[in-house]
Request: fold
Amino acid sequence: MYLDSAYIAKFYVNEPDSQRVRAVILAADSRVTSSISLVEIACVVHRHTREGVLEASEVRITLNRLFEHVDAGLWILLPVTEPLLRRANHLVSTAPANTFLRAGDAIHLTSAFEAGETEIWASDRHMLAAASHFGLTGRSA
Reply:
């Protein structure tokens, strides 16, 4: 199962759909994501701090837990390589003009496709809508 970083962040912080997302994640045989998720998840956690949802001590605990899970193999991190970025560049440049894409989303979509995944789990409507251009089915809990 390929997950974008915002979906993985829901595993660590409480958001409206976190319980459903956690259940889907825990039921999966494997959990794959791009290594950029490490930074993107930190940004999500930081946003929760900025919004007053998490204290600084909770941020450290949350991010330490993330790295413990990475080290234990809960998350399989795919490297961001130049060939992957070139492939993402090509896919973005050939996307229909009305396709809304951010760089991180394009990296996730390309990573999922290159890893041989057929689906990408995300909650972002733009990423889910763009998934088919990358040969993927967008899924959400």
Notes: The domain at 5-139 is CATH 3.40.50.1010 (Rossmann fold). The chain has a mean pLDDT of 96. The chain has seven helices and four strands. The longest helix spans residues 56-72.
